[in-house]
Write a structure and sequence with these properties.
The complex is a heterodimer of chains A (about 325) and B (about 280). Chain A contains 13 helices and no strands. By secondary structure, chain A is mainly α. Chain A has one domain: MetI-like fold. In chain A, helix 4 packs parallel to helix 8, helix 8 packs across helix 10 and helix 9 crosses helix 10. The chains are: A mainly alpha (about 325), B mainly alpha (about 280).
Chain lengths: ~325, ~280
């Protein structure tokens, strides 16, 4: 939006004449522009775009770590193997459960918090200050911290359960049934404040007068939210949930620290699986193929999500 | 979200807010509590919120047991260099992206978005092979280059927003007054952009300071490893006696990020939104 405005503006300003008469275009397509652009462009090409393409190419090879024989093209062999690799599909299913299980509560809780913070409540500042902690904290520390919370003996969770007379508690992170829910709670905790702050910023764009007008018309809180707040918030909500889903699906450090994929692979997210495959077993080509499948699945899910949402917005 | 809120609704709001406060705060308070507990209390079956005999022993042990200081120095070097490189190369590109619409701008924006969607495993394997060929594997410099580029998408995103916030008219006025392009950039644009550049650099610093995955793969020698990697060495064999030092080290590793983040939080939110407006 802003970009378009800026271009229109500079277009309008450009009177006929030589380049010297057109001060409204501070940057010109010239050697000067390349001088500004190249310092970023070269590292991006060498260390990001290039490697990503290289990574996709590796998925079609039998590349292995520390091998002397030269790497061969194997076509779709890695993908065929993946198709029959039940461990990978298990990991993939866990990854999807994790990504949805984290993203949805993250959004719902964040929306609640943002709506509260948008109110004139005391202690609001405290919630804002506390919201910084999960956001700023290294993921490794988040993991260590929650290991202390979940610790079977010295952890505060089991101690609280004992105090409340709810049994002796359990070993949350190593129990087959509890491990995945336990790490999902940590994921929600870690990502919720960031989402809330983004939503809050969106909320503060809602025109105040509209709210008052709707209230005067006798609209209840829910109707005011539906008709006034949500339409403004919608683009922000769409963008942040899409990003959260991607980040969650690709996340690594949190679960690596909490459970390292255990117990018995119950929390082995696709990223952990691919990491082991690549750097424990040296199967570079196979791990790259896993990465490609992850990208493909994310793209499909996001395309469906965004297309559905955008269409929903158009019908309204 | 109502204008005139009744008493019950208000009470409900406060109850909900309290719930959020507890959920957000309790793990962190527990971390601090554990960090200051003597080993004997950590071994007890009924751990308390407030240590009976608070102690600094855990901090001392943490520094003795693991080369934490060296790891912190490595992290500091990597994060500082990466942040500096990131803003130095990103600012000019962000300026071009904000001020003109061209195929290059579109391509750069596309890269910013796409780079977010790729799982790191697809990036790390080629980077590992490339850095190995350049003999930069297991060096801080290799890691710094990776971090700088990895911080670029978000740095660009933020900086483009900040550049747009500087009215192009100001630059036009300066050049009408006869200032050359370089002078305009240095004396008009740069000062207005400076706070945004600092915020971006600080954010890139935190990103690198907190990062685990790349460092885990790229650094093998213990002397070169960064703080998050060294912290993972603490995990696993956690006897009750080791919980205290673990908590102490984790607490210390968080402080720099927390302090910096508290300073720049508002700017980051602003940057996120400024970047988001165009999409």
């Amino acid at each position: 939006m802003t970009l378009a405005n800026a271009t229109v503006r500079s277009g309008k300003h450009g009177p006929p004449g030589g380049p010297q008469d057109r001060p409204s275009r501070p940057v010109e397509r010239s050697a000067g522009t390349w001088f500004l652009v190249l310092p970023a462009l070269i590292p991006i090409l060498v260390l990001s775009v290039g490697p990503l393409l290289y990574g996709i190419a590796l998925a079609f090879t039998d590349a292995q770590s520390g091998r002397t024989r030269s790497t061969q093209w194997v076509g779709g062999l890695n993908f065929q193997d993946l198709l029959h690799d039940t461990l990978f599909w298990d990991s993939f299913r866990i990854g999807l459960v994790w990504a949805f299980g984290v993203t949805v509560p993250q959004f719902v809780l964040a929306l609640g918090l943002a709506l509260l913070l948008n109110q004139n409540l005391r202690m609001r500042w405290l919630a804002r200050a506390l919201a910084i902690i999960p956001w700023a904290m290294p993921e490794v520390v988040v993991g260590i911290m929650w290991r202390l919370v979940y610790h079977p003996d010295a952890g505060v969770l089991n101690e609280t359960l004992r105090d409340l007379g709810l049994g002796d508690g359990r070993d949350w992170l190593t129990g087959l049934a509890t491990a995945l829910p336990a790490v999902i709670v940590v994921g929600v905790w870690a990502g919720m404040p960031q989402t809330a702050v983004a939503l809050l910023a969106g909320l503060q764009n809602t025109p105040h007068e509209l709210h008052e007008a709707a209230a005067l018309d006798g609209a209840g809180a829910w109707r005011r939210f539906r008709t006034v707040t949500w339409p403004v918030l919608r683009p922000v909500a769409l963008a942040i949930t899409a990003l959260n889903f991607i980040w969650n699906f690709n996340s690594f450090a949190l679960v690596y620290v909490l459970t390292n994929g255990g117990p018995g692979g119950r929390t082995r997210l696709p990223m952990l699986f691919a990491y082991e495959e690549a750097f424990h077993y040296g199967q570079f080509g196979y791990a790259a193929a896993m990465g490609c499948v992850m990208v493909a699945v994310i793209s499909v899910i996001l395309a469906v999500y965004l297309a559905g949402r955008l269409r929903g917005g158009g019908e309204r | 979200m109502s204008m005139r809120t009744g008493g019950t609704a208000r009470a409900g709001q406060y109850a909900a807010l309290l719930g959020y406060l507890v959920f957000l705060a309790f793990p962190f308070l527990w971390l601090i509590s554990t960090a200051f507990k003597p080993a004997r209390e950590l071994g007890s079956l009924h751990p308390t919120w407030i240590p009976d005999h608070p102690t600094l022993d855990n901090f001392r042990t943490a520094f003795d047991e693991q080369p934490l200081l060296r790891a912190a120095a490595n992290s500091l070097t990597a994060a500082l260099c990466a942040a500096l490189i990131a803003v130095v190369v990103a600012t000019p590109l962000a300026y071009v992206m904000a001020r003109r619409r061209s195929r290059l701008t579109t391509a750069a924006t596309g890269w910013v978005v796409i780079s977010q969607a790729f799982p790191l495993v697809l990036l790390i394997i080629p980077l590992f092979l490339i850095l190995k060929n350049l003999h930069l594997i297991n060096t801080l410099w290799g890691l710094i280059m990776v971090y700088a580029v990895w911080a670029l998408p978000f740095a660009l995103w933020m900086l483009v927003g900040y550049v747009r916030a500087v009215p192009a008219e100001l630059e036009e006025a300066a050049s009408v007054d006869g200032a050359g392009r370089l002078r305009t950039l240095v004396s008009v644009t740069a000062p207005l952009l400076a706070p945004g550049i600092v915020a971006t650099a600080l954010f890139a610093f935190i990103t690198a300071w907190n990062e685990l995955f790349f460092a885990l793969v790229l650094l093998k020698t213990p002397e070169k490893q960064t703080l998050p990697v060294v912290l993972t060495h603490f995990i696993g064999a956690e006897g009750a006696a080791d919980l205290g030092p673990l908590a102490a080290a984790a607490f210390l590793a968080t402080l720099p990020s927390l302090v910096i983040f508290a300073i720049i939080q508002r700017r980051i939110t602003g940057g996120m939104l400024a970047g988001a407006v165009k999409s």
